[in-house]
Amino acid sequence: MSSSIGQNNLENQLDEMVRSFVQEKLETIMKEEMNQYFEEHPELKNYKNGSYKRHLDTKYGRIENLQVPRDRENAFQTEVFQPYQRYEQWLGETIITMYQKGMSTREIGRFLERILGHAYTPSTISNITDIVMDDIRTWQERSLEKRYSVLYLDGTYLKLRRDDVANEVVYVVIGVTEDGYREILGFYVGGKECSTGWKEVLRDIHTRGCEEVLLGVFDGLPGLEEAMKEVYPRADVQRCIVHKVRNTLNQVRKKDQSAVAEDVKSIYQSNSTDEAHKQLEAFREKWDKKYPKIAKSWREDFSALTAFMAYPSSIRPMIYTTNIIERTMKEFKKRLKTMNSLPSEQAVEKVIYLVSDECNTKWATRKLRGFKEAAPTLQQMFEERYGSPTETQVEE
């Protein structure tokens, strides 16, 4: 045991000697660099101004209190740090990538200590990831396309610590361009999901340039349809069929669930709204006495459940459900799952932004199925509702 301790002490002493030697040589090199700089620039009326201290991570470990020479006007810049700046850049990018993949700041700190030999506290890791905050603000304020064929709206809850830990919503909007490419347009953190919150989200999307929309797709949150119509009065609204069917079957006795599922499928798989309406009447005749609330609910929501039928058949499977945005929400939660509760709103924004940026980069070259065939019809629908691009410009 004592020999092991002695060996460790010897190794620590050797490490310290190596770092001390490297520090001495680096400081000598920087002094010579400054002398050479002033010999090459005799015209500069400048003079030395002592030094400042900084630490430097090297392959020999961290060198503390490295003395860096400086002049009064900061004209001299040492080249000693260039290879180490590349090291720091790699380290910063690695930390951000690990954070993006859902590792907590403590997990990242422990990982870096194992591979680099010195500790990084959670607060240090958090400070390093703070460099993305400027990127987040720029991304959140970026201009959007004028026309989006579809907007998908959804919210998910995360545990967020402020004074205490509570569930708070993250509003997310995904748009599909005229050409059929997906894009996360924005995310908004805080509070409880409500129609007022969604109205503010949609107003922000509109202010940033998304002025013309054909269809909004979302689940059955009360007031969301009215919020959509207030900001985009010419857009159709589509309630998610999958949510509606799921809620319907939850109200049905188990022995009837299979039959009811087949009968509602005949409604939303119709080829036209006229056919869907006939299937709805058949459903009411069959089930109205046993499940009157369900039949009434489908009748009241009929127009919002069948709006997708006015669109080309090639994209209908994509627009009668919120599956596209729900898959993205699952990815957000997967990345955040290891963090239990998020320490701040900024911590949420960092992860959501990094995942969003990754998704948008991936989606930029992947057109959604069916939109190529639907393009002429969608273009005609835009012109019927909003006029041609040239007409819109004249009105503006």
UniProtKB/TrEMBL annotation:
It holds the Pfam family Transposase_mut. It comes from Halobacillus karajensis. Keywords: DNA recombination, DNA-binding, Transposable element, Transposition. The keyword Ribosomal protein does not apply. One of its GO terms (molecular function) is transposase activity. The keyword Transmembrane does not apply. This is Mutator family transposase. InterPro entries: Transposase_mutator (IPR001207). One of its GO terms (biological process) is DNA transposition. Belongs to the transposase mutator family. Required for the transposition of the insertion element.
